[in-house]
Amino acid sequence: xxxxxxxxxxxxxxxxxxxxxxxxxxxxxxxxxxxxxxxxxxxxxxxxxxxxxxxxxxxxxxxxxxxxxxxxxxxxxxxxxxxxxxxxxxxxxxxxx
Length: 97
Hints:
- By secondary structure, the protein is an all-alpha fold.
- It folds into 2 domains: 11-66, no CATH class; 70-97, no CATH class.
- The protein is built from 6 helices and no strands.
């Protein structure tokens, strides 16, 4: 497995974003050379205002832990590729279950 870390990439985890939205968002903005703007907290309202796609509707609900682990519903269908994904799951520190 190749090491996926490269200069010029900013990795964030959904779980960390949910747990520490402002801290993670500040890191991403800093990585991009942008300053903090409190308006980033307002993404659910802006998504509701435009709501043209299913992902807009998901964003309008704000961040939550609700979708985490939903891949498990498709475990049987994913069985052939799970061994290929395992090194990446381990690399990123997710539980292998």
